[in-house]
Amino acid sequence: MYCVIQEIKVKKANSHGAYKELEVSELKWSCGDDYHCKYSYTYSYERFERPIKKAYKVSIHHSYRENGKVKKKQWVLCTMNYYDIIDFGLYDCADHRIKALSEELKITEDEIYNMVLSKLNPLTEQIRTEFQETEEYKVSQQHRAIIDKYLQAKREFEDIYGND
Questions:
Q1: Beta bridge partners of 47
Q2: What is the DSSP letter of 12?
Q3: In this model, does residue 164 exceed pLDDT 70?
Q4: Residues 129-138: tens digit of each pLDDT
Q5: How many C-beta atoms surround the C-beta of residue 98 within 10 A?
Q6: Distance (Å, rounded) from C-alpha 58 to C-alpha 91?
Q7: Mean model confidence pLDDT for the chain
Q8: What is the pLDDT of residue 145?
Q9: Which of 25, 21, 41, 120 is nearest to 77 (CA)?
């Protein structure tokens, strides 16, 4: 048995990239003579376009001989979009199918995962390296740094002055 990962062309681009802007939101209210203000953050509606139109079909193949002829059996585990490999993982996309296949083939799930990951990991590293060069990745890292700094400052403030 062996794993095959086949590249497939996709017709539509993925429009669910990272958000382009991080915006401050402010909520003001009054209770009698007391005025309150709470700050938070939201993302803008505009997102990065994800132009790469590729997907990868992950399947398990088994070749055997029957009456002197070579036969081949194939089980498709999942089809992962280029960006699914970045945003999710094999477990998220194919766990249910891998469990069913392990019962059908009478082998452990770990054996199937190891077989697939040995082929998928180099591809994942290549895609991650390509993605880290994009503006989307750089902007999302900046947003993550800003949010982390905000949450740290918020915790420190609440430690001194309490919640609300």
A1: 19
A2: S
A3: no
A4: 999 999 999 9
A5: 23
A6: 12
A7: 90
A8: 95
A9: 120
> CB neighbours of 80 closer than 8 A, spacing ≥ 6?
55, 56, 58, 88, 90, 93
Q: Which residues of 106-142 are buried (b: 16+ CB within 10 A; e: fewer)?
A: eeeeeebbeebeeebeebbeebeeebeebebbebbee
Q: Where are the beta strands (DSSP E) in 18-159?
A: 22-31, 34-43, 54-66, 69-81
Q: CA 47, CA 19: separation in Å to the nearest integer?
A: 4
Question: Both ends of the chain: CA-CA distance in Å?
Answer: 60
Q: What is the pLDDT of residues 32-78, one digit of tens each?
A: 888 888 888 889 899 998 899 999 999 999 988 888 888 899 999 99
Q: What is the value of pTM for the model shown?
A: 0.79
Q: Which two tokens stand for residue 54?
A: 């590729």
- The DSSP bridge partners found for residue 38 are 27
Tokens 């193949």 belong to 61
- Residues found in the chain: 164
